[in-house]
């Protein structure tokens, strides 16, 4: 293979190169008791290279179980430090992870609902099937996935938020019933609940708030007073 082509394959391009340079690496494993013993044996005997390693390994095999445990306990501080470093690394990974897209949330729910159907298809057929199902969603249901910020719950449950304005009593009763709230109690404004997609779509239609069930109003101008007037008119 020509040298230039071989070098091109080894060198990452574009954003991939920057990502590989900036993402933190998982902390290395702590030094084992065996490796500590080998390192000490090489220092004492002055032997290096393969011969020094073989000599140290043979000496290790002649140690008793208690002696080996003593060497293993010597790296306890290193193991503790490494455990803390791994936890910091995991926390960083979680903090920098991209949030799921609306389509990925939809795919997760679709797989839960139609696992057998999708499992019987090859990858391309399943991808086309899922894409067609996504395109066929009505605007209200798609908005649920677009606006959802919580992890997907058990299908077909979805996360929803009570509107920030006071809805008519009939609409509030529909919300309470869909969310399973006992009679005589009301959800608080802005409270997050889970309800069935079909239930929420029916609430959206009854309230007349358009295709954004999580937005809390039919207008996009952000004027809460005007939205409140719309709720009162609907009553």
UniProtKB/TrEMBL annotation:
User: Which parts of this chain does the entry mark as a DNA-binding region?
Assistant: 27-90
Ranges of Acidic residues compositional bias?
220-235
InterPro entries tied to this protein: HMG_box_dom, HMG_box_dom_sf
- GO cellular-component terms in the record? nucleus
The record's region (Disordered) falls at: 1-34, 209-235
Where does the UniProt annotation place the signal sequence?
none
Annotated Basic residues bias: 1-13
Per UniProt, residues of the HMG box domain are 27-90
Print the keywords alphabetically: DNA-binding, Nucleus
One Gene Ontology MF term: DNA binding
Question: What name appears for this protein in its UniProt entry?
Answer: HMG box domain-containing protein
What is the originating organism of this protein?
A: Folsomia candida
């Amino acid at each position: 293979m020509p040298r230039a082509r071989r070098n091109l394959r080894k060198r990452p391009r574009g954003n991939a190169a920057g990502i590989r340079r900036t993402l933190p690496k998982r902390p290395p494993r702590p030094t084992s008791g065996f490796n500590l013993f080998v390192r000490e044996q090489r220092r004492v005997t002055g032997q290096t290279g393969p011969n020094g390693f073989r000599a140290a390994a043979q000496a290790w095999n002649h140690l008793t179980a208690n002696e080996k445990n003593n060497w293993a306990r010597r790296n306890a501080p290193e193991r503790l430090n490494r455990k803390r470093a791994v936890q910091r690394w995991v926390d960083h990974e979680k903090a920098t992870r991209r949030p799921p897209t609306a389509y990925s949330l939809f795919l997760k729910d679709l797989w839960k609902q139609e696992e057998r159907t999708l499992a019987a298809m090859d990858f391309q057929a399943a991808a086309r099937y899922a894409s067609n199902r996504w395109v066929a969603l009505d605007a209200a249901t798609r908005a649920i996935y677009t606006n959802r910020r919580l992890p997907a719950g058990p299908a077909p449950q979805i996360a929803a938020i009570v509107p920030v304005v006071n809805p008519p009593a009939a609409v509030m009763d529909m919300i309470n019933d869909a969310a399973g709230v006992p009679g005589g109690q009301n959800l608080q404004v802005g409270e997050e609940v889970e309800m069935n997609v079909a239930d929420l779509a029916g609430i959206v239609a009854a309230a007349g708030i358009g295709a954004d069930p999580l937005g809390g109003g039919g207008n996009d101008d952000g004027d809460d007073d005007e939205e409140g007037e719309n709720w009162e008119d609907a009553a």
